[in-house]
Design brief:
By secondary structure, the protein is an alpha/beta fold. It folds into 3 domains: 363 residues, no CATH class; 33 residues, no CATH class; 175 residues, IlvD/EDD C-terminal domain-like (Glucose Oxidase, domain 1, 3-Layer(bba) Sandwich). The chain is 37% helix and 13% strand. It contains 23 helices and 14 strands. The strands form 3 sheets. An 8-stranded mixed sheet has the order 7-8-12-11-10-9-13-14. It is globular and about 75 Å long. The relative contact order is 0.11.
Length: 602
């Protein structure tokens, strides 16, 4: 039995989603069949589909009713360090498939942009929308209908959610995600953050900043801080869609290759059975396990958008209120940067996601009976892969791993009794706040006058001019999905952190995002309704007193409703439509609100 609050949240989600989930499953069943998809394709279509295959592959592909053909959907590019290792994965996966009596083909590729490169740049306005473009690209890749299952190669911020949403549009097909692993630890994330603040304060030059960044981002593999990319990897394991403990194994070596082969083998086996598609597997318990893992590890705020969108793609009406309810009973069991000093390599050494799963199950705080993409009972998979011996993976129970209590604690003795994220509500709207990373732990709230800005560049400029040496709440409207695509505002972290370090009480309110690397200051983000949709944030003026309270979970402006109503509506400052932004006008016009997933396709 799970905790009563978790059970009641599950019951509410199921009842609320009764119609939408039934409709989704009907779609899966209509597309499903016991015979491989390509057995229903004409011979002309079929011949086209494997014209470039080897003779060995063709001989298997002709056996349309007995030999699975696996789609590989890849987000490979060699600019993203996390995705660069995927370069050789297709040929490895094809070889693994042949060894197990099946075939695999690269069905298609998806875009994969890096938020670390586009922070503060025009490209960041395309970032969130890239998730839906990836979903559409995945659907196009699978649309040839000559596949019996899919393996999905993706790691980073919008890429995993996009791949999963796209895969769910072919929910009758079995599928599994395959990671590539993190880079080795470089300069500590804490030291990197200090250099960024020093640069913002003018204490070090650009050469020192670049040297620090290069020591942090220095090789192939996922960035090692616990941002959105690594939160993605945790979520996939928590939801049973990726082999347990596989996310943070090194990018190279026998263990990484064996995990990749094992994932392919499980995918092939799933394709031989009815109703093993990814859409059937992603049940309400799987979705809530994802939410629970996010809260327990202090993961990325971006997933309050992505989990809602993913859930809706599978017919589940997940809401921020569900996340808030779970946050009251899910303890914080990890301290990972930016919530602590440890990186994901240290997380892995302490048992990684399997250790999180184990302690949550031990305390009845997660669902242990969910179905998985690898057919094994979820409750039995809280083990860490540690070596390959005679061609087999050695799995170590996480109870046998010595834990560093500054990095990982049990659910019985957590860092905090409540989760890492909270929902704020009040007369300004609804917003998400990440409490696990706040350094102002002696405070419960901030009440200060508003200072309204037009852009994050405006905040940075005023900081450099010394105009912000005071207590204030920074208000940045016009950053929402319908305005400019809801960019991350991570460039604000160094200046606002510097002000806080110097003793000023500062907070941020915005309808934009702050990312998985959210700073140490209170940030009420994803505010909805957004300014361009008539939200109160667009009517805040300089000097208005605002309270952000992360204990009472409220966000409030001390202005009477009549005065607010009389103020003119928000007008978005002119923004250039160059560098691809013009292509996303339709997306901005049709995108849903942040609390509905900020999607233009769902």
């Amino acid at each position: 039995m799970v905790h009563p609050t978790i059970q009641s949240t599950l019951d509410t989600l199921r009842e609320r989603s009764r119609t939408s989930r039934a409709e989704y499953l009907d779609q899966c069943k209509q597309a499903d069949a016991l015979l491989p998809s390509r057995s229903r394709v004409s011979k002309t279509n079929l011949a086209h589909s494997y014209a470039a295959a080897s003779e060995q592959e063709k001989s298997i592909l002709r056996q349309t009713q007995s030999s699975p053909n696996i789609a590989i959907v890849t987000a490979y590019n060699d600019m993203l360090s996390a995705h660069q290792p995927y370069y050789r994965y297709p040929e490895k996966l094809k070889a693994f498939a042949l060894q197990h009596g099946a075939t695999a083909q690269v069905a298609g590729g998806t875009p994969a942009m890096c938020d670390g490169v586009t922070q503060g740049q025009p490209g960041m306005e395309l970032s969130l929308f890239s998730r839906d473009v990836i979903a559409l690209s995945t659907a196009v890749a699978l649309s040839h209908n000559t596949f019996d299952a899919g393996v999905y190669l993706g790691i980073c911020d919008k890429i995993v959610p996009g791949l999963l949403i796209g895969a769910l549009s072919f929910g009758h097909l079995p599928g599994i995600f395959i990671p590539s692993g993190p880079m080795h630890s470089g300069i500590s994330n804490e030291e990197k953050g200090k250099v960024r603040v020093a640069y913002a304060e003018g204490k070090v030059d650009e050469a020192a900043l670049l040297e620090s960044e290069e020591k942090s981002y220095h090789s192939q593999g996922t960035c090692t801080f616990y941002g959105t990319a690594n939160s993605n990897q945790m979520l996939l394991e928590m939801m049973g869609l990726q082999l347990p403990g596989s996310a943070f194994v090194s990018t190279t070596g026998a263990l990484r290759d064996k995990l990749t082969e094992t994932a392919m083998q499980h995918c092939i086996q799933s394709s031989l059975h009815a109703e093993t598609g990814i859409g059937y597997i992603l049940d309400a318990e799987n979705i809530l396990n994802g939410v629970i893992g996010l809260l327990a590890t202090g993961g990325s705020t971006n997933h309050t958008l992505h989990l809602v969108a993913i859930a809706r793609a599978a017919g589940w009406d997940l809401r921020w209120e569900d996340i808030a309810l779970l946050s009251e009973v899910i303890p914080l069991v990890c301290k990972l940067y930016p919530n602590g000093s440890a990186d994901v390599n240290e997380f892995h050494q302490n048992g990684g996601t399997p250790a999180v799963i184990q302690t949550l199950l031990d305390s009845d705080l997660a669902f242990g009976q969910i179905r998985t993409a690898y057919q094994l009972p979820f409750a039995q998979t809280a083990k860490l892969p540690v070596a390959v011996d005679n061609g087999n993976i050695t799995w170590l129970p996480t109870q046998d791993i010595t834990k560093n209590e500054s990095v990982f604690r049990s659910a019985g003795t957590p860092f905090s009794k409540t989760g890492g994220l909270k929902l704020l509500t009040g007369n300004i709207g609804k917003a998400i706040i990440k409490v696990s990373s706040l350094s102002a732990n002696d405070l419960s709230h901030i009440t200060a006058p508003a200072v309204v800005f037009e852009s994050q560049q405006d905040i940075i400029l005023q900081f450099k001019q010394g105009k912000l040496n005071k207590d204030f709440v920074a208000v940045l409207p016009g950053q929402g999905p319908a305005a400019i695509g809801m960019p991350e505002l991570h460039k604000l972290t160094p200046p606002l952190t510097s002000l806080q370090n110097n003793g000023y009480k500062v907070a941020l309110i915005t309808d934009g995002r702050m990312s998985g690397a959210s700073g140490k200051f209170p940030a009420a983000i994803h505010l909805t309704p957004e300014a361009i949709k008539g939200g109160t944030i667009g009517k805040i003026r300089n000097g208005d007193m605002i309270t952000v309270d992360w204990i009472k979970d409220t966000i409030h402006i001390e202005v009477d409703p009549q005065t607010l109503e009389a103020r003119p509506p928000f007008i978005l400052p002119p923004t250039p439509q160059t560098l691809g932004r013009n292509l996303f006008k339709s997306a901005r016009n049709h995108v849903s609100a942040a609390d509905q997933g900020a999607s233009f396709i769902i």
